[in-house]
Amino acid sequence: MRMDKQTFLKTSGLQVKVLELWIEQEWLVPQQTASGVFFEEIDVARVRLIRELQSRIGANDAGIDVILHLMDQLHGMRRAMAELRRDMGGPQA
Amino acid sequence: MSNPYEVLGVSASASPAEIQSAYRKLAKKLHPDLNPGDKSAEEKFKEVAAAYDLLGDADKRRRFDAGEIDASGAERPPPRQNYYRDYAGADTGHPYANTSGFSDFMDSDDIFADLLRRGQRAQANRRGQDLHYRLAIDFSESIAGASKRITLPDGGTLDVKIPPGLVSGQTLRLKGKGAPGAGTGGPGDALIEVEVLPDPRFEREGDDITIELAVSLSEAVLGGRIRVPTATGAVTMAVPKGSNTGTVLRLKGKGAPKRGGGSGDQFVKLKVVLPSPPDAELEAFVSGWAKGKAFDPRKEG
């Protein structure tokens, strides 16, 4: 589901300033279109994750930077592995 | 539900700081997003989270210790929506995908690298996304055609050629002007939905355009040459003698350009307008005009 900025703020419960900061830090990467920026459900889930890293895990901003970077690589790796398995005719994940 | 102190692995006398630290240690190990491949992590994490929701809150912990609430009667954490891992693992592209973690594997020469490369190629050579834009143009531009420039959010521009005869809601495709692709995938297209702003004077139906035009009594009765606006500029038109309100005159080829050559017509619907304010001379003439009084326009034939 595509969301504009207002809907995204409401859905994620983020403050505008926090959202702008997170975009600047590239923790969030919204889609750019001629009619403005758009967000997807993956961005809502990512906000939830960042919040939990802050509150539950107690990670600071630098820590979150590192976590997100490694996590994105891990998911890239998992995807490559899944594709490999598909190419080799293995069971679907 | 099991004893929250046991779940967190702390003693009943643990300080809030100890409880938090024990919880964080477990959360790090069990958070589903930090364990994207471990399906059982989610259940364990929920249990730990519920225990911490109870013991991490001084008031709830006091009531639990006093036996006022039991571990299962404690407020349940709100139902979980999807974790990030549910989206990040999806097959469709998203902006966070990152392959730098194993690009070195693909540089080598063995079978594994070959397989990885093959798997990546499909992704790597993905065509860029189509980008959607909206553009509003004037009615006359929709008939005559125009060149417009869209300013993009990144400061760039896009030149759009409006073909003559375009209809509101039509989408123009600019090949290769979308988001860049990866590898040999090539860029996507820019899709521009064009809205034609209505012009109160003109009404378009198919390739024909209708306009209502006021004429004076003298032009209607005696005929004459008048200037008529068209979408491509004003033209001169002859009004025949004895024209009337409702008389439709045709300007051939002054409508919208047709697909495959030629143009529709412009129809000019005349509307006779009496002088305002009323003219004394006209009034005097009409009151002495016997034939005019005898004519009943509501009578058939």
UniProtKB/TrEMBL annotation, chain A:
This is Chaperone modulatory protein CbpM. Gene3D superfamilies: 1.10.1660.10. Pfam families: MerR_2.
TrEMBL record, chain B:
Residues 66-89 are annotated as: Disordered. Residues 3-68 form the J domain. This is DnaJ-class molecular chaperone. SUPFAM superfamilies: Chaperone J-domain, HSP40/DnaJ peptide-binding domain. It comes from Shinella fusca. One of its GO terms (biological process) is protein refolding. GO terms for cellular component: cytoplasm. CDD domains: DnaJ (cd06257), DnaJ_C (cd10747). GO terms for molecular function: unfolded protein binding.
